[in-house]
Amino acid sequence: MIIPPAERTSSVKEYYFSKKNREIAAMNADGRTEPVINLGIGSPDGRPPQAAIDCLCESAAKDGMHAYQPYVGTPEIRKAYADWYSRWYGVTLDPASEIQPLTGSKEGILIISLAFLNKGDKVLVPDPGYPTYSSSASLCEAEIVNYNLVESLGWQPDFDALEAMDLSGVKMMWTNYPNMPTGAPADPALYERLVDFGRRHGIMICNDNPYSFILAEEHHSILAVPGAKDCCLELNSLSKAHNMAGWRLGMVASSADVIYEILKVKSQLDSGIFRPLQLAAVEALKQGPEWFSSLNAEYKRRRVAAGHIFDALGVKYNPDSQGLFLWGRVPEGADPVAISDKLLHEAGVFITPGFIFGHNGEKYLRISLCATVGKMARALEKIKSVI
C-alpha cells in the first residue's frame, strides 16, 4: 500500500470468525461432496416474525421511505423499544432521551468505547468474553484489564477479587448475561451487586443483553435495579430473540446524558437506519409469549442434539445453559484447537475452540445452536466417523 496503516490497527487482528468463514467458504468451493456443517457462529437460521417481514415489504414499496432518517431513530421505534422494556423487564425508559437505536449492538460496543474512552483509560473485560469488548477498547488505545469468570463460580464475577484489584483508572466494565460463551444466567442479585460496584468505584457498567430471551424462563435487565441509570447502560438487539441478525437492528439505553454522548459519536458514522427496517422492528417488538415459547422449544431440541455431539467427544457441559450456545470442557489432556481442526478438516464440521474468548476458555469448546436438529445429527454421524 502507498501509506502505512494507522498504528491503532496493530492492536487488533481480523475477527476470528471472519477468517474462519473464509476458510470454510474455500473448502466448500473446492469440490466437496457435502458442505461443511458450521456450528460456529451464532447466526439464527429461523424466520423473523411474519408481521415484520410483511411490514418491511409493504413499507419499502411506498413513496417517501427512502430518504435519510433521523440520527436518533424514528419516534415509532424509540417508543417500541420503551414499551418492550416496560413489558418484559419492568423498566421505564423515556423514548425521547434514554434510548438510541443502533445498526446492531456490535456497532454499539465500538461507539460506546469511542464516546467514553481516552487513551490509557482502563476497561474491565470478562475472560472468557465476547472478543469485540477487547478489540473496541484496543482501537481506542485503552488498557484492557481482564477479570476472571470461572466455572466453579458459575461464570459470574468474583467480587472479592474485583475489590482487591487496583481499580485506579478503570472507567468502564463490560458484562454479558446470559453469558456468551458460557451460557451462565443472570439474576437480580447479580445485577444489584454490579450496580453497587459501579456506583462505589465510579465505573460505568456496560451490560450487553442480547440473549435474555433465549432458553431463559425469566428475563432480566440491569436497568431494573433502582438507580442503575446513574452508572449503567445496556445494549440489546433483535438479532437473537427475533431471528433478525442480518437486519442489523439494536439499541442502547441509559440516562439521557449518556445517550447524548453516544449520539454525538454515532451521528458522525451513519445517516440513520432505513425507515422500513425501523417500522418492521416495531412489529417484531410486539411479539408476545407465544413467539418466545415456540422459539425456545426449538432451541431446547437443538441443545439436546448439541449435547449428543459433546457426549461423543467426552466433553462435559451444563445441559440447562441459556443463550445460543452450548459450552463444554474437553477431557483432561485434550487440546480443543486440535479437536476443532480435526473435526473441520476430517469430518467437515466446525466447532469453535474456546481460546478465542480468553485464557479461561482454553480448555473448552462451543457449539452454536443455530443449526437444525437434523443438521446436528448429520454432524454427529460425521464426527463419529473420525474419532
| DSSP strand count | 12
CATH topology (fold) name of the largest domain: Aspartate Aminotransferase, domain 2
Q: Order of SSEs, N→C? A: HEHHEHEHEHEHEEEHHHEEHEEH
CATH superfamily of the largest domain: Type I PLP-dependent aspartate aminotransferase-like (Major domain)
What is the structure about, briefly put?
Helix content is 40%, strand content 15%. It has 387 residues and is of the alpha/beta class.
Descriptive overview:
There is one protein chain. The protein is an alpha/beta fold and 387 residues long. The protein folds into 2 domains: 7-47 and 290-384, Alpha-Beta Complex (Aspartate Aminotransferase, domain 1); 50-284, Aspartate Aminotransferase, domain 2, CATH 3.40.640. Helices cover 40% and strands 15% of the residues. The protein has 12 helices and 12 strands. The strands form 2 sheets. The protein has a 7-stranded mixed β-sheet, sandwiched between helices. A 5-stranded mixed β-sheet has the order 1-11-12-10-9. The chain is globular.
Reconstruct the topology from this structure.
Layout: H1 16-28, E1 37-39, H2 50-60, H3 75-89, E2 99-102, H4 105-116, E3 122-127, H5 131-139, E4 143-148, H6 159-164, E5 170-176, H7 188-201, E6 204-208, E7 232-237, E8 250-253, H8 256-269, H9 275-284, H10 289-313, E9 316-317, E10 325-329, H11 336-347, E11 349-353, E12 364-368, H12 373-384
Parallel strand pairs: 1-11, 3-4, 3-5, 5-6, 6-7
Antiparallel strand pairs: 2-8, 7-8, 9-10, 10-12, 11-12
Helix pairs in contact: 2-9, 3-9, 4-5, 4-8, 10-12
Task: Please give a handful of descriptors for the protein shown.
about 375 residues, alpha/beta, Aspartate Aminotransferase, domain 1, Aspartate Aminotransferase, domain 2, 2 domains, 7-stranded mixed sheet, 12 helices, 12 strands, about 40% helix, about 15% strand
